Amino acid sequence: MEKISTQMRKGILEYIILWIISKWDIYWGEIIQKLKQWDLIVAEWTIYPLLSRLKTDNLINYYWVESDSWHPRKYYTLTSEGRDMLIIMEKNWIDIKNSIAKILDK
């Protein structure tokens, strides 16, 4: 049962991460905190490779912020391609949600 739950969460993780980054300029640790807060974390070590892939696909970008109180942090932002992809993903999510609702209502 846990394996199924993990697979379902992984399937929506890219969408949720793009959504999070669309709302805030955010660093890796804050993304993890939000996913944990919403009970969506799969495994912390899976997030950084996903962020790297999103960067390679030009869906996100990053900039460094330095501070005296912590190590430099990489803050993520959406690119215009990322915003376009998020719009497509949101539409797909609504379509899937509606289809599932129809199936479960029968």
Overview of the molecule:
The chain is α+β, with helices and mostly antiparallel strands and 106 residues long. It has a single domain (2-105), classed as Orthogonal Bundle (Arc Repressor Mutant, subunit A). 67% of the residues lie in helices and 13% in strands. It is built from 4 helices and 3 strands. The chain starts with a helix and ends with a helix. The mean pLDDT is 90.
Summary tags:
single chain; 106 residues; alpha+beta; Arc Repressor Mutant, subunit A; three-stranded antiparallel sheet; 4 helices
What proportion strand? 5-15%
Which regions contain 5 or more consecutive residues with pLDDT less than 50?
Answer: none
Q: Output mean pLDDT.
A: 90
Under CATH at level 1, the class stands as Mainly Alpha
Give a quick rundown of the structure.
The chain has helices at residues 2-23, 28-37, 44-56, 80-105; strands at 26-27, 60-65, 73-78. The chain has 106 residues and is an alpha+beta fold.
Please render the helix and strand layout as text.
Blueprint: H1 2-23, E1 26-27, H2 28-37, H3 44-56, E2 60-65, E3 73-78, H4 80-105
Antiparallel strand pairs: 1-3, 2-3
